[in-house]
Design a protein that fits this description.
With about 100 residues, this protein is mainly beta. The chain has one helix at about 40-50, and strands at about 1-5, 15-20, 30-35, 60, 65-70, 85, 100-105.
Length: about 100
């Protein structure tokens, strides 16, 4: 899958598109095909190193997400493949929404 990653802290110029392995949903997670990922002020602060929620790069930013469920992890009963979803999963932990696919709970 394609994802926007960063390997160092800094301005928007540290963001690059790269191929990454597809995530696999774990128990209690769903795999979302991302249609849209929002950008909010915390994204810029984390990217610049002012608010190190994710530790040191490399990482994939993004928490605001909208898309369609592609797969279910074990034990997921409240959703089905094909459901359209949106939200802010995992915050303040990594949700990796700047990607084609995101495994979220």
């Amino acid at each position: 899958m394609r994802a926007v990653i960063q390997k160092s802290v800094g301005g928007p110029d540290v963001l690059v598109t790269a191929n990454q392995p597809d995530p696999t949903p774990k128990a209690g997670e769903v795999l979302v095909r991302v249609k849209a990922a929002g950008i909010n002020p915390v994204d810029g602060s984390v990217r610049a190193g002012y608010y190190p929620l994710l530790g040191e790069p490399p990482f994939i930013l993004g928490w605001d997400i909208s898309g369609t469920i592609e797969a279910l992890g074990a034990g997921v009963t409240g959703f089905k493949v094909g459901d359209e979803v949106f939200g802010m999963p995992r915050f303040p932990k990594q949700a990796a929404a700047y990607a084609e696919l995101a495994a979220v709970c």
